[in-house]
Amino acid sequence: MNSTVGNEVLALECGTIIQGPGVWYSFSSAGSEEVTFSTCGSALDTKINVFSGSCGAYVCAGGNDDDCGVQSNVTIITPATPTDYFIHVSGWNGNVGLFDLAVTCDVATCIPPVNDVCASAFPIPDGVAFLDDNVCAQANDLSPACAGFGFVDGVWYTWNSGASNALTLDFGPAVTPDAGDSAAANPSIAMFSGNCANPTELNCFNGAASESITGLNINTTYYFLVFTDADVDQGQFDLTLTGGVAGCATVGACNYDASATVDDGSCDLSCLGCTDPLALNYDAAALADDGSCVVPSCDPIVSTEAAICYDSNGNETYNFTENTPGEGVSVLFNAGTVEVNWDVIFVFDDLGVQLNTQIDGDLTGLIFTSAGALSINIVSDASVSCASGSQTEISLTVYCGALEVVGCFDPLATNYDAAANSGDQVALCQYLGCTDVLACNYEALAILMMVLVV
Predict the structure, then answer these.
(1) How far is 392 from 395, CA to CA, in rounded Å?
(2) Bridge-partner residues for 38, per DSSP?
(3) What is the tens place of the pLDDT at every residue in 210-242?
(4) Contact 212, 166 (CB under 8 A)
(5) DSSP string covering 277-342, please?
(6) Cα separation values, 144 from 211, 270, 388, 397, Å
(7) What is the model's pLDDT at position 454?
(8) How far apart are CA 417 and CA 208, in angstroms?
(9) Of 165, 168, 162, 261, the residue nearest 221 (C-alpha)
């Protein structure tokens, strides 16, 4: 049983950063051993850091914060030659107190890969799909931002940017592992600039990732650490690093760069819009179509919503076509206004016959039906308009065929509705006539007495 009270604080990082007072131990390995240092079961929230090298010239061999609850556990595989190790036990976030340290040794059954350390990183060719694994990798590396509290069982790679100032990174568990192997479970990848002695973390991604990374320097070597949190998660992974040119890669953007292969998020999309002159929202200034066009038409199954915001000093016609010849088109005005006495609106059928009698003001609730195509013409003066903000945008629902309008469509009825095309006419229509059942000219359909004045 030992205590961390009163000992020095070392701002070292080896698997996990040392944050508080700690105590040192030494261990000598005879070679080719699997050695575990553990504080599991202790009361103190601990951290363990294991180093080779010598006092003051430490070489990280592994470190851990939380492996068994808030206690720590580090396993290393020692080289064949006898090696001395230095073990530092400290409290998380400066905590101090009592702990138990157990050391167990076994014959090494797994040999760490060559690129288990940064100094032996493997170079990855640009644009080449790469399949590798971190099996037997030891927790002897940095603790990247996305590593959490687990181990960092990692392997190292390098990639040179060459003439590229951007990178596309494709990474994840192996889609097709080699026969007899398995894919890594939720592997992570961290990217560093600098060098092995002084790395600067740039990015860190958990699990499958397809990322665009910009702001890189040309002819520069970058370092990548691929890792899992535990030995049982180790396995194969896919990795492809492809250099490119950063810039706006969206065709039609105001600042589109045809040479850009990696979009850097700088695109100015104000030049995108609807480029179809027949659409309700046609934008003459648009350089490329953004798929927003609303083309006047009707749908055989559901209605189509459309909107018109007319401008001053205009004479615009909006044509609504039928999907099937002879099917017809109906238009319902849900809302909208046209300036009274100054701006006018006309609705025509396919033969050019004007269908509306109201030509300005509030259009809400108006319904028009044409046996063929239907057109709306808006003529405005130079003063106020919808575009100027003084008139309400015209909202339309366009239907295929005749829109069902319940009402009396008998021209002889007193309540004749020219827009009506459906409903029980006996129940709906009202007629003038004699309502006296004793009269010779009694009219059963009459509901109002027609009085003859002589």
Answers:
(1) 9
(2) 73, 102
(3) 999 999 999 999 999 999 887 778 999 999 999
(4) yes
(5) TTSTTB-TT-SEE-S-----B--SSS-EEEEE---TT-EEEEEEB-SSTT--EEEEEEE-EE-TTT
(6) 17, 39, 55, 56
(7) 36
(8) 65
(9) 162
Of the candidates 107, 140, 103, the residue with the CA atom closest to the CA atom of residue 32 = 107
CA atoms within 13 A on the CB side of 18: 24
Average pLDDT, the chain: 85
Tokens representing 180? 């007899």
Residues in Cβ contact with 437 at an 8 Å cutoff, skipping those fewer than 6 apart: none
pLDDT of 135 higher than 60: yes
- CA–CA dist 226, 270 (Å, integer): 40
**Could you give the CA distance from residue 23 to residue 407 in angstroms, rounded to a whole number?**
94
Residues with Cβ within 8 Å of residue 44, at least 6 apart in sequence: 4, 71, 91, 95, 96, 97, 98, 99
The residue that leads in pLDDT, 445 or 366, is: 366
Question: pTM of this prediction?
Answer: 0.51
| pLDDT tens sequence across 245-292 | 999 988 888 899 999 999 998 999 888 888 877 666 788 888 888 888
Distance of alpha carbon 261 from alpha carbon 239, whole angstroms: 19
Q: Are the C-beta atoms of 162 and 148 separated by less than 8 Å?
A: no
* 3-state percent helix, strand, coil for the chain, nearest multiple of 5: 5, 40, 55
* Cα–Cα distance for residue pair 286/252, rounded to 1 Å: 8
Average pLDDT over residues 53-69: 85
| 36, amino acid identity | T
- Torsion angle defined by CA atoms of residues 140, 146, 149 and 153, in that order, rounded to the nearest 10 degrees: -30
Per-residue CA distances from 88 to 17, 49, 154, 228 (Å): 11, 5, 21, 23
Domains along the chain with CATH numbers = 2-107 (2.60.120.380), 114-244 (2.60.120.380), 304-400 (2.60.120.290), 414-454 (no CATH)
Q: Would you say 155 and 134 are in contact if contact means Cβ atoms under 8 Å apart?
A: yes
